[in-house]
Amino acid sequence: MSSLAFLVALLLSCSSMSSAARRLEEIPKPEYPSHPTVPEIPKPELPPHPNVPEIPKPELPPHPTEPEHPKPELPPHPTLPELPKPELPPHPTVPEHPKPEIPHPVPEVPKPELPHPAVPELPHPVPELPKPELPPHPTVPELPKPEVPEHPEVPELPRPELPPHPELPRHPTIPELPKPEVPEHPTMPELPKPEVPEHPAVPELPHPDVPEVPKHELPPEPESHYPVPESKP
């Protein structure tokens, strides 16, 4: 149902679009007036530049010369008398202390002379002692092996019978819907190209003659009255 509703909506939108396009084609386009041509304004003629008269150079008075000042004579540096060196007293000598004689706390004890004990002489030869007869090792009887009981046989359990799987319903088959016929796009008619008017030719204006302006000479730099510092070697 949803797909059918979608297709119906598509058909309605296509039909509305085609009707709107036909209405737009039927509306006549308004004809706009051509742009008015603006006349060119003539350039005003400028008067020539006035000639500037040359200004006479003013005569400057010479710089006054300053007299040289005499250098002041400084008094000589006073000489200081040499001071006598102070005599220091000699270092005092420390007397040597005699070493104290330490008496021995433990007097030496003379070692006592111990007499050696006399060892009695044994008669030779020493009689041989008889070897004791050891009893033979007892024989360990072989023990019978214990009989291990066999593992009991586990009886096979019967497998439970499972119920058969239920058959699932098959997917419903969707019927093929007929394809809607889409209308062809309307062809736009070719509009005639508007004729553009040619641009008017602009007449060339004569260039005015500009007189050359004379160059002004700058006055010379005044001499400075400050002394020039001597360069250090």
TrEMBL record:
<feature type="compositionally biased region" description="Pro residues">
    <location>
        <begin position="75"/>
        <end position="93"/>
    </location>
</feature>
<feature type="region of interest" description="Disordered">
    <location>
        <begin position="27"/>
        <end position="233"/>
    </location>
</feature>
<feature type="compositionally biased region" description="Basic and acidic residues">
    <location>
        <begin position="65"/>
        <end position="74"/>
    </location>
</feature>
<dbReference type="InterPro" id="IPR044659">
    <property type="entry name" value="PELPK1_2"/>
</dbReference>
<keyword id="KW-0732">Signal</keyword>
<feature type="compositionally biased region" description="Pro residues">
    <location>
        <begin position="39"/>
        <end position="64"/>
    </location>
</feature>
<protein>
    <submittedName>
        <fullName>Uncharacterized protein</fullName>
    </submittedName>
</protein>
<feature type="compositionally biased region" description="Basic and acidic residues">
    <location>
        <begin position="144"/>
        <end position="170"/>
    </location>
</feature>
<feature type="signal peptide">
    <location>
        <begin position="1"/>
        <end position="20"/>
    </location>
</feature>
<feature type="compositionally biased region" description="Basic and acidic residues">
    <location>
        <begin position="206"/>
        <end position="224"/>
    </location>
</feature>
<feature type="compositionally biased region" description="Pro residues">
    <location>
        <begin position="115"/>
        <end position="143"/>
    </location>
</feature>
